[in-house]
Amino acid sequence: MGELSLFRNRLNKQMREKGKHQMSFYELVYDAVQKIPKGRVASYGQIAMLCGNPRASRAVGGALHQNPLPGVIPCHRVVNRNGRLAPEFAFGGPEEQKRLLEAEGVEVGDDHCVNMARYAWYGEP
Predict the structure, then answer these.
(1) For residues 60 and 110, what is the distance between their CA atoms, to the nearest angstrom?
(2) Which of 56, 79, 93, 99 lies at 20 to 30 Å from 63 by C-alpha?
(3) Sign of the CA dihedral 92, 68, 87, 118?
(4) Do residues 74 and 34 lie in contact, with contact meaning Cβ atoms separated by under 8 Å?
C-alpha cells in the first residue's frame, strides 16, 4: 500500500471517529494535485475548481503549505493563475520549486513564471 493510501486511510479513520463520512477539503486537494502529470502545472484556482469550490484558491494554498507527503503529493506543480511560482514555497523556496519543475521538463523563466498556455493541465486524464 502506497504512502498516499496510508494517509487516506488515516484521514478516513479520523473522519469516521468524528462522525464525518466525506473527504475533507485538504484530502480533495491532495488527491487532485497528485493527478497533475509530470511536466505540467495547474493553478490554485484550477485545483479549487476540481475540488468543487472554485473560490477556495487560498485554501488550496493553505493545504499545500501543510502537505504531509511532499515526495508523493507534488505541490511544486501548483502555481498561481499567471504561472508564477510560489514566493513562499514551503519545501525549499521558489528556487527549489523551479528546480523540481525544470527536472520534469517545465521551462521556468527568470521571472519565476511558467508559460500556462504551454504547460497548464486542466484535469484531463
Answers:
(1) 25
(2) 99
(3) positive
(4) yes
Given the residues 75, 100, 114, 116, select the one marked as catalytic. 75
How long is the chain? Answer: 125
User: How many Cα atoms occupy the beta-carbon half-sphere of 106 within 13 Å?
Assistant: 31
How much is the pTM? 0.81
What is the overall mean pLDDT for the chain? 86
Give how far Cα 103 sits from Cα of 26, 40, 46, 77, 112, Å. 26, 12, 23, 12, 15
What cell does 37 get? Answer: 502529470
The cell for 29 is: 486537494
- 113 noted as active-site residue: no
d(CA 64, CA 32): 11
CA–CA dist 54, 45 (Å, integer): 6
**HSE toward the beta carbon, residue 29, CA cutoff 13 A:** 26
- Residue 6: pLDDT band (50, 70, 90) is low
